[in-house]
Amino acid sequence: xxxxSVWSVDPRTGERRGDGAVAVASGAAAxxxxxxxxxxxxxxxxxxxxxxxxxxxxxxxxxxEGPALIxxxxxxxxxxxxxxxxxxxxxxxxxxxxxDLVDAAAEPGGFLDVRRDGADPTLTPPRPELYRVKVxxxxxxxxxxxxxxxxxxxPGGDTASxxxxxxxxxxxxxxxxxxxxxxVATALRAAAxxxxxxxxxxxxxxxxxxxxxxxxxxxxxxxxxxxxxxxGRALFDVAAARPRPIPFHGELGSVNxxxxxxxxxxxxxxxxxxxxxxAGSFTLGMGQxxxxxxxxxxxxxxxxxxxxxxxxxxxAQVPAGVLLDPRMREAFLDGFAVRAGLAEVRTxxxxxxxxxxxxxxxxxxxxLSVPAASAxxxxxxxxxxxxxxxxxxxxxxxxxxxxDAILSRLDGCLTATLHTPATDPDAPAHLAALARxxxxxxFGGWPTGVAVADAMHHGGPYPASTSTATSVGATAVDRxxxxxxxxxxxxxxxxx
Amino acid sequence: xxxxSVWSVDPRTGERRGDGAVAVASGAAAxxxxxxxxxxxxxxxxxxxxxxxxxxxxxxxxxxEGPALIxxxxxxxxxxxxxxxxxxxxxxxxxxxxxDLVDAAAEPGGFLDVRRDGADPTLTPPRPELYRVKVxxxxxxxxxxxxxxxxxxxPGGDTASxxxxxxxxxxxxxxxxxxxxxxVATALRAAAxxxxxxxxxxxxxxxxxxxxxxxxxxxxxxxxxxxxxxxGRALFDVAAARPRPIPFHGELGSVNxxxxxxxxxxxxxxxxxxxxxxAGSFTLGMGQxxxxxxxxxxxxxxxxxxxxxxxxxxxAQVPAGVLLDPRMREAFLDGFAVRAGLAEVRTxxxxxxxxxxxxxxxxxxxxLSVPAASAxxxxxxxxxxxxxxxxxxxxxxxxxxxxDAILSRLDGCLTATLHTPATDPDAPAHLAALARxxxxxxFGGWPTGVAVADAMHHGGPYPASTSTATSVGATAVDRxxxxxxxxxxxxxxxxx
Lengths: 496, 496
Known about the structure:
The structure is a homodimer.
Chain A: E1 5-6, E2 9-10, E3 15-16, E4 23-24, H1 28-45, H2 48-64, H3 66-77, H4 81-103, E5 115-117, E6 130-136, E7 139-143, H5 157-165, E8 169-172, H6 178-194, E9 202-205, H7 210-216, E10 220-226, H8 229-241, E11 248-251, E12 257-260, H9 270-283, E13 295-299, H10 302-317, H11 326-340, E14 346-349, E15 352-353, E16 363-364, E17 366-371, H12 372-375, E18 391-397, H13 400-409, E19 413-419, H14 427-435, E20 438-443, E21 481-487
Parallel strand pairs in A: 7-8, 7-10, 8-9, 10-11, 12-13, 12-19, 13-18, 17-18, 19-20
Antiparallel strand pairs in A: 1-4, 2-3, 5-6, 6-21, 14-17, 15-16
Helix pairs in contact in A: 2-4, 2-6, 3-4, 3-6, 4-5, 7-8, 9-10
């Protein structure tokens, strides 16, 4: 039996693209070869100047090949040229951002995080001369996400931060965009060779079986994952069950609640304005964002009713669109139908098929509303969980106690958003309540944008993340480093 | 059936101490009560000034009760009054050290690790105003070690760093020193009450079953563990299998290799001097240190032979002593006998019983020697693994390739030590080879002392640690914190 073919599929039609398969599924031998080639690149990556050069050369190449990459990604994901152009720009920005961090790695505040102690024999225990620095973990496995074919895939934050740390990467491509993945990997490998690094610095694998095989490989030292709770947890379990367990940094999903207070709706037009902005946020990229606001705590009463009506109207104006793949489309429609069918749940906008001539698989966004007292019932817990795609659930609360009860039931989240006036005397308590289960707390605004920044945290309690680390921003590098202390080592022999 | 009694046992005789049991084994209800009481203390611990006061008050009380605590610990561990006096001083120093870190938590370089970004709408993606700070994880479970009844037990580094972070702790006492644990926990709880914190800030559990029960508790958010590979891995697996997995920072053992080059033995008397110092290090505390040098790579040839002879002589001079408990004694004697019985292994000093009138369970330290070529055989892998207690293995290498082959077979280690002149042109390569698998690399000296310092790293690749974190020194606090970003939150509403 030959290796299984990997095809590129058009999500607008569900049909295979092109004249032949893009690749073949990676068997155990291919996984082993990729990890060994990456491991062999480790000594060369110790040269920080070369790492920075690789990240910049990669950004250059991706930018230069932008039109072809964006065309491939749009054909495979239906995310649209405008969005993908922005995403590619974000990705090249991110590669350069990590290159800058490599340049500054040995400076104070840099990620080598150098600490020194002088000798002090008078202490208990006595202190010898110590120099602490961080070193790369080794080969890192990266699992690409479906919903960001660039920014959270082959050239994304996990890859960029691992390379910045000095770790070669082996990427498991997402099956939704194998052609894009191949093109990008080719560009990254060419960038490596261009700056004098082995092509094996970046490996690419395809196929479902390659995932656990990669995580089990004895030379793998860490994993970055962005995807579903089921797939992510299965791989987390593989990482934990190894004879030598390795860190698994997985982002598995988030419902991203928004708490709207009565005061936020008090001004004239406030409800309508907020509702319109929410419609834009929860349908952005057809709701296929890990930071999509999927649950909105809205006060009972007239102002909340006005918000509901405005949101239903705004959602009806959002054009139908195509999801990333037919399986995801089915899961979205099923998930919405299950939630809509629960007792006391009202459908304000019905998610459903909206096929057009260009896109027979298109769907419309959906909005549900439920009283908080009903959402608190065990039978209704699906309403408090992520429904991936363009849907959101309004939970109408009668008083702050009900709102708190809902928040305290939520799993860990990437984000939580508060809409209330800055003068609200309860604002600090609300912010504290949101910080208890979220990695990023917003005062106003919407969570769908994730800045690449030093002070960004993109993570949160499980299942938002399987670790306490961030997958976006400067400190993402720390995931792929471990400290080593050097004791009474002569200055000239210290590594830098 | 009533709860199982927990007795204090005299390791010098193997007999129960005192007129009655010290405590009862903690059942599921006791575990739940301790974790809930600790969880209830979380809001009070948000006050950093109070946390620092707690750590200092705890140090005061332990110091004041020193004679009684040391007497109890010596009766339960046979570690001796001198060693325990030093260990208690280390422990109170450590509590005050973490109090100082709490005072400086919000300063630059402090563990709140505050990062700020100004808004920049021209970036791709645009950057909003961001403020990132670290917050406590929640209740932390601490598993006390057998071999340090103070410094790695109830009032040790895990407890001190967790309290510094703002996390209440529930400690699982080690069965080798239940009376000491009870006395210390009482002092810590009194210190909490003294500074206005709930007594439940520190909980104490006894008994084997309490361990997994604690790790499984839904309100537990992290674990610190110091102990054996078997026990630690079992609890690691429980933490990873939870519906919501939690970080497990475990220190599971280390063989702590020492690489002695031919050049290190070249000077007159060098071999004898080094051998004498090694004898002191591997028998310190009857070899019951996680940093005990358990494997020494020694060149073949005359100088190495002189080292062997000097070490055998020095080991013979070390007084016999008692191990922490009869089970550990048996494991030590069995482990030594198994290694000594392997082909081509020579016994330079025979570990074995050496009972005297005061201590019928005393043992003598042991030294083995084996050619590297033999140690590399699969049948001999026990020689490359930790044998807890006063024993070390000399591995005689014919050339640097053999030495490297041994090093590359080792599991992750807490420490690795190099003995060679600073002028050795191969010194940088040796240091790099050692840093590949160790958390602390020493140039000269011996690994048994672990300073409490900013630049200390006490950890290393698995099984030295189950994570990339340290359990000693300033950055130990980071294990119990997670970052939260606040986006466009008005300055006055930001947490500090």
